[in-house]
Amino acid sequence: AADAAMYHAKTMGKNNVQFHSAELNQIVHAYLMLEANLGRAIRERELVLDYQPKVDLRSGRVVGAEALVRWRHPVEGTIPPDRFIPVAEETGLIVPLGEWVIEETCVALKSMAAHGLDDFVIAVNLSARQLRQRQFPERLGQTLRRYGVDPRRLELEVTESQLMDQPDEARDALAQLKALGVRLSIDDFGTGYSSLSHLQTFPVDYIKIDRSFLGDVGHDGHMVITRAIIALGHNLKLQVIAEGVETREQLAFLRAHDCDQMQGYYFSPALSRDALQDLLARDTRLPD
Ligand code: C2E
Ligand code: MG
Ligand code: MG
Ligand code: MG
């Protein structure tokens, strides 16, 4: 990685970059590569969206999916979002990247509607930086109309910690988005220290329990938190989604405590659009 970072630094004429550690090398490498290559990556279609199914816990049916971006780099191989989203957020490249994610999702929603899947919902992850753009709600409305996508088919996920960064501004932006008719979720809930009074005033539809709370059932106090979050969500008239469900025991616990939806490797990882459509065509259900 150090050699590669040096190589990238040199080819971009940044011989003066100082490297202090392997970790820093990696970070610098990611920055330089991303800044130089993201525009190209979008144009050359190196970015792809995979879709992780979301399952209704009562019917066992797939009701939607979360779009998760991946970078299929020609030299580096597939780069997971944790390695380039933070860089994109720092540099502001998250704005064009996020626009691409929304357009690509509109294309997928249109294709699904054409296959008779007209109540399927796709969630995209939104960065606070996108939310802070004044023009964002208006532009989103235009995009949805341009693609002919019903706003109720699109869900926007924002993490609790990003919302709590500037809660009053976030609330205003969420209200404008809600007025378009899209669905809103608070992602990674439980890790962001929101006060209950704030939570009550965010016009959202879902909270997603962070996967760190779905520990070992029976061996972990975390399940107490999971249970409390489900009850809190329901008291606020919100639906609750559990993410990162990996075991049968976690699933049984969530069902016993009336959680609404699940996502996780126990049912399926994120899939290509074709693989998702196959799964839907076979009407695959969550086992009892
Ligand atoms: P997230 O929104 O909380 O997404 C859930 C992450 O958990 C995904 O990782 C997913 O693949 C992973 N996951 C799902 N089920 C399981 C499971 O059963 N066990 C475990 N251990 N992990 C599971 P991924 O795809 O690497 O995404 C990581 C994060 O990157 C996302 O967290 C999200 O914050 C961010 N991200 C991904 N795509 C986008 C995007 O288009 N825009 C923005 N702004 N952020 C994105
Ligand atoms: Mg998410
Ligand atoms: Mg999450
Ligand atoms: Mg996350």
From TrEMBL:
EAL domain mapped to chain residues: 31-284
Protein known as: EAL domain-containing protein
Record organism: Massilia hydrophila
Residue range from the parent sequence: 507 to 794 of 794
